[in-house]
């Protein structure tokens, strides 16, 4: 991808590691992200988005290993399909490890997670060294934003940074499925 610049990705990772909230491109829309273990950053992200904490958030990572600190991939009929769908625009709701902060899953015993295949989002996760919060960049109830300019216009002073770049080809947020039943929570 032409907008891949390691220094930009590393600068964005430093902002996240220092408690900041940033925006970045994903497979389909811009995402808002922060360190999922930082309750202040998560609270700030929810505040600027206008999202209720009980809805939970999605975590993305560069690989399955980074997600396994947060979730358990069940040994059921869906395990093979879950693993085969990553990396890619497929979010699965899986059992949260007991030590993972409850605020990420909205207090539920599950978390929504994805191994991203978007080059910038994946590079950001690698630079951070783990998972990052990924919720669509929009005010709650409004359409998701697809450009860095739109994100800056809507959230500018409330963000610590924007990692600019092109979003993926899909015009809809990623599909979400239940990892215990395979049921669609949000269809593609």
């Amino acid at each position: 991808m032409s907008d891949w610049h390691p220094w930009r990705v590393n600068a964005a990772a430093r902002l996240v590691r220092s408690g900041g909230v940033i925006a970045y491109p994903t497979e389909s829309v811009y995402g808002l992200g922060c360190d999922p273990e930082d309750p202040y950053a998560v609270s700030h992200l929810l505040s600027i988005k206008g999202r209720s904490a009980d809805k939970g958030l999605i975590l993305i990572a560069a690989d399955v290993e980074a997600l396994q600190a947060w979730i358990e991939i069940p040994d059921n009929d869906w395990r093979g399909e879950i693993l085969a769908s990553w990396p890619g625009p497929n979010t699965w709701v899986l059992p949260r490890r007991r030590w993972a902060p409850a605020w990420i899953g909205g207090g539920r015993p599950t978390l929504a997670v994805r191994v991203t295949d978007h080059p910038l989002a994946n590079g950001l996760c690698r630079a951070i060294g783990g998972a990052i919060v990924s919720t669509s960049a929009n005010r709650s109830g409004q359409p998701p934003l697809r450009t860095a300019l739109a994100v800056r216009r809507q959230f500018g002073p409330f963000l610590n940074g924007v990692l600019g770049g092109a979003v993926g080809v899909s015009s809809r947020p990623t599909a979400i499925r239940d990892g215990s039943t395979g049921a669609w929570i949000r269809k593609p």
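The mean pLDDT is 94. Residues 138 and 154 are 8 Å apart (CA to CA).
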